[in-house]
């Protein structure tokens, strides 16, 4: 079994590195969080292949992929879904939100109000969502890769809200942590950019 797991991880890393260049540490952290049945938080700048990484991972794993762009006006129901009245059956049914997927990219989570953040964090910690008093289980596996801007004003100005340390990285014994992995990402150096250009040229030549 250990050999099988090791071979599987190596295969996933190899496939990801065929597409993603210069992000070995984030790839490793994502896989650690995924194996631990946790979630990952990236703090960084735009344009560092976060969406491409998650899309590629879901393709390799043959898993469902979803993306939520967090904005200041995003409501909890925009994540979890809402009950809709069906005229034909005279009953309510759940219109599922984007959280009902296997691998979810939660982009710029710090731009949304705390109440909406809480809806996602509950789904991550409990593996289910509550809509108008009814609970619904999320798919298994369920993995969230959340991103957060580098600079956030202390009072939340500029459309950003801090994901508080007590909510994200709980220090009390036995407390469930929202994220199993956290790291910062910066733009790659000139050597990595050169590798990216060479790889793009090679792909175009063989296309």
Per-chain topology:
Layout: H1 2-19, H2 24-35, E1 40-44, H3 50-61, E2 65-69, H4 76-80, E3 81-86, E4 91-96, E5 103-107, H5 114-126, E6 128-131, E7 134-137, E8 143-149, H6 165-168, E9 181-185, H7 190-206
Parallel strand pairs: 1-8, 1-9, 2-5, 5-8
Antiparallel strand pairs: 3-4, 6-7
Helix pairs in contact: 1-2, 1-3
CATH fold naming: Rossmann fold
Strand order of the largest sheet: 2-5-8-1-9
What kind of oligomer do you see? single chain
CATH architecture: 3-Layer(aba) Sandwich
Indicate the radius of gyration in whole angstroms.
19 Å
Spell out the helices and strands N to C.
HHEHEHEEEHEEEHEH
CATH superfamily: P-loop containing nucleotide triphosphate hydrolases
- Domain tally: 1
| Main CATH class | Alpha Beta
Report the count of strand segments. 9
Distance separating the two termini: 38 Å
Mean pLDDT: 77
> Structural class, from helix and strand content?
alpha/beta
Q: Poorly predicted ranges (pLDDT <50, ≥5 residues)?
A: 169-176
Morphology call: globular
Helix content: 25-40%
Q: Tally the helices: what do you get? A: 7
As a percent range, the share of strand residues is 15-25%
The main pleated sheet reads as: 5 strands, parallel
Structure explained in plain terms:
The protein is α/β, with parallel strands linked by helices and 207 residues long. It has one domain: 3-Layer(aba) Sandwich (Rossmann fold). Helices cover 39% and strands 23% of the residues. The protein contains 7 helices and 9 strands. The strands form 3 sheets. Strands 2-5-8-1-9 form a 5-stranded parallel β-sheet, with helices on one face. α1 runs antiparallel to α2 and α1 crosses α3. It is globular and about 60 Å long. The termini are far apart. About 4% of the residues have low confidence.
């Amino acid at each position: 079994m250990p050999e099988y797991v090791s071979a599987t991880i190596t295969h996933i890393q190899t496939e990801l590195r065929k597409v993603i260049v210069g992000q070995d540490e984030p790839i490793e952290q994502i896989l650690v969080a995924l194996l631990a049945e946790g979630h990952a938080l990236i703090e960084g700048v735009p344009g560092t292949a976060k969406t491409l990484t998650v899309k590629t991972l879901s393709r390799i794993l043959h898993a469902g992929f979803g993306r939520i762009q967090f904005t200041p006006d995003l409501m909890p129901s925009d994540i979890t879904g809402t009950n809709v009245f069906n005229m034909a059956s005279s009953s309510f049914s759940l219109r599922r939100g984007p959280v009902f997927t296997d691998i979810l990219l939660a982009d710029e989570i710090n731009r949304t109000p705390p109440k909406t953040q809480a809806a996602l964090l509950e789904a991550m910690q409990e593996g289910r969502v509550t809509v108008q008093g009814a609970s619904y289980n999320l798919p298994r596996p369920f993995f969230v890769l959340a991103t957060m801007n580098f600079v956030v004003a202390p009072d939340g100005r500029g459309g950003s809200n801090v994901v508080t340390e007590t909510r994200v990285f709980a220090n009390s014994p036995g407390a469930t942590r929202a994220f199993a992995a956290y790291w910062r990402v910066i733009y790659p150096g000139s050597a990595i950019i050169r590798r990216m250009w060479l790889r793009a040229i090679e792909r175009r030549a063989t296309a």
